[in-house]
Design goal:
Elements: H1 3-10, H2 14-18, E1 26-28, H3 38-46, E2 53-57, E3 76-80, H4 85-92, E4 96-98, H5 106-112, E5 119-124, E6 132-134, H6 142-148, E7 151-156, E8 170-172, E9 178-181, H7 198-208, E10 216-219, H8 223-234, E11 241-247, H9 249-256, E12 272-277, H10 281-287, E13 293-295, H11 298-301, H12 304-308, E14 313-318, E15 321-323, E16 328-329, E17 332-333, E18 336-337, H13 344-353, E19 358-362, E20 366-368, E21 374-376, E22 378-379, E23 397-400, E24 403-406, H14 412-421, H15 425-437
Parallel strand pairs: 1-2, 1-5, 2-3, 3-4, 5-7, 7-9, 10-11, 10-14, 11-12, 12-13, 14-19, 15-22, 19-23
Antiparallel strand pairs: 6-8, 15-16, 17-18, 20-21, 23-24
Helix pairs in contact: 5-6, 7-8, 8-9, 14-15
Length: about 450
């Protein structure tokens, strides 16, 4: 095949690409840094002529042009696999909705669902000599999207890092219908290295004590997981491995400190495995053409069978709040949506199945409301509408700045006592009183 000739035959303007979208279509916008730019602008120009266009994507890192049209709810819906701040604001405008699913299930969902994408459009790196466009740090579910879409449009960005994998990290030109050469914008950055708080540092130190040499790491997004990463980079730990949903800046720091070799991994030895990556330019530069890093589909990275095959797997994730039964909410504040299910439960389950594995749910014991009032993140029961991300049967370790407790297998009264022991002292008596009302506090419990 003459790939260069095929490229020229399929090369179109952003306006031509946008013209294929019809009212009622399902249009897939990819994921995080792969969200289209040039074609998005062109779609936004003609969207006022259309109705009931259903877009799908996730973790938006900038406001798409389609969000900026007049009365977007009259013309479109945005259906998100995982929400960030931009999408939360769009909920209030009446056109953004969350699609609840375990992240690991996305590839199968696309392949088996009756609702196939009519059009898929997303950013890729330039075509290589073999005719492949790389998905960048977004392997995730993108191969399944391409396989099932009626029309596949790629928007080439010369700044998109090429992320090696092994399977499903790119799409061949023979499976692409249209090619758009965009304006090559810089890859969007997420979450610069904010200084860790004293609470973050306290939690990180407690978790660090549990991590052995040769452990395999999964870090969630947020201040606490990054604080753990910073401490690991300064520690004496060695031969660490990486197998994670999201590749974050902390891994780059740990690797540059010489702590990551992957030498003791049971599978994918020597490789840092991830489903997608988002962070600063430092991260994208590190991932670009780095054979040590393995971009993989999310039904591999987040499969509990894959995770459990890795000894001493350490899963570290955040929570919004949790209750005295051990139910963990990492998705909402009551009915106010925050993020999504993601892969947290997959890693909680997989880490416990791993030989020597541990799952840590970490959070500050309190937070301040807008009026300055101090509120406990540990509550008697979750607020109405709050989502149970991890059930009470699944939680392993809970860590706050006041300590860490292993909750696995405890009776309700034991679990309640352990949870209250790491709550802020100001709220412990109140929590005990509520636990007594719920009949999950024994008279013999320590006060």
């Amino acid at each position: 095949m003459d790939f260069k000739q095929m490229y020229q035959e399929k090369l179109v303007s952003a306006e031509k690409a946008a013209s294929v979208i019809k009212s009622g279509d399902w249009v897939d916008y990819g994921w995080t840094t792969a969200t289209p730019v040039a074609v998005d602008k062109a779609i936004a120009k003609r969207l006022p002529e259309l109705t009931d266009v259903n877009f799908r994507g996730g973790i938006l890192m900038w406001v798409p042009e389609i969000f900026k049209i007049e009365n977007p709810a009259e013309h479109m819906t945005w259906n998100s696999w995982h929400m960030g701040g931009i999408e939360r604001k769009a909920i209030a405008q009446g056109f953004s909705y969350y699609a609840p699913i375990r992240y690991s299930e996305l590839p199968r969902y696309y392949r088996e669902s009756q609702t196939k994408p009519d059009v898929a459009v997303f950013q890729v790196s330039p075509m290589d000599e073999h005719g492949f466009f790389n998905f960048g740090p977004n392997a995730s579910h993108m191969a399944a999207v391409c396989e099932t879409s009626k029309v596949v449009i790629v928007e080439v960005n010369e700044n998109m890092p090429v992320c090696f994998g092994g399977t499903e990290e790119g799409v061949h030109i023979s499976h692409v219908d249209m090619i758009v050469e965009g304006d090559n914008p810089a890859i969007a950055e997420m979450g610069g290295a904010a200084a860790a708080s004293d609470v973050d540092e306290a939690v990180a130190k407690l978790i660090l004590e549990e991590i052995p040499d040769g452990a395999c790491l999964q870090l969630g997004i947020g201040g606490m997981p990054n604080a753990v990463g910073a401490l690991i980079a300064k520690s004496d730990l060695k031969d660490l491995g990486v197998h994670t949903e999201m590749y974050v800046d902390a891994f780059v720091d740990i690797a540059n400190a010489g702590k990551i070799t992957g030498a003791r991994k049971n599978i994918d030895k020597g490789r840092q495995v991830y489903a997608f990556g988002a962070g600063t330019k430092k991260l994208y530069d590190y991932l670009n053409k780095n054979p040590e890093c393995m971009s993989a589909p999310v039904d591999y990275t987040n499969d509990v069978r894959t995770i459990s095959a890795l000894d001493n797997f350490m899963s570290i994730n955040n929570a919004v709040d949790l209750d005295l039964f051990g139910q963990v909410n990492a998705e909402s504040a009551g009915i106010k949506h925050i993020s999504g299910a993601g892969g947290q439960l997959d890693f909680v389950l997989g880490a416990y199945l791993s030989r020597g594995g541990k799952s840590f749910i970490c959070c500050s014991s309190t937070f301040k409301k807008k009026d300055g009032t101090l509120e406990s993140r540990i509550v008697p029961t979750l607020a109405p509408g709050s989502i149970v991300t991890d059930t009470r049967a699944n939680i392993h370790y809970l860590v706050t700045e006041y300590g860490k407790v292993n909750l696995k297998g405890l009776s309700t009264w034991q679990k309640t006592e352990a949870i209250i022991s790491v709550a802020h002292p100001q709220f412990r008596d109140q929590l005990i009183a509520e636990a007594e009302k719920m009949h999950i506090w024994r008279a013999s419990n320590k006060r």
